[in-house]
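Entry 14. Structure prediction run on the chain below.
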Amino acid sequence: MKELIESIAKALVENPEAVVISEEQGEDGSVLIKLAADQADMGRIIGKQGRTAKAMRTLLNAKATRENLRATLQIVEE
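Output returned:
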């Protein structure tokens, strides 16, 4: 799941080297994926009215459902 978000994020931004993604396992079996990027690229990742971020979360949830997991995407500022 980390690879899915990483490929989407790197395709969106102007500085793909600055994209940092970490994956954490929760105690309840859920997966938390944290996405950080260059401050100048945050608008591209979030999108107008959060549409791009929402689409990435939808794709992540679809993949997690296929694997019988729960996944959350958190976008953090560096």
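The domain at 2-77 is CATH 3.30.300.20 (GMP Synthetase; Chain A, domain 3).
Filed with the rest of this week's runs.
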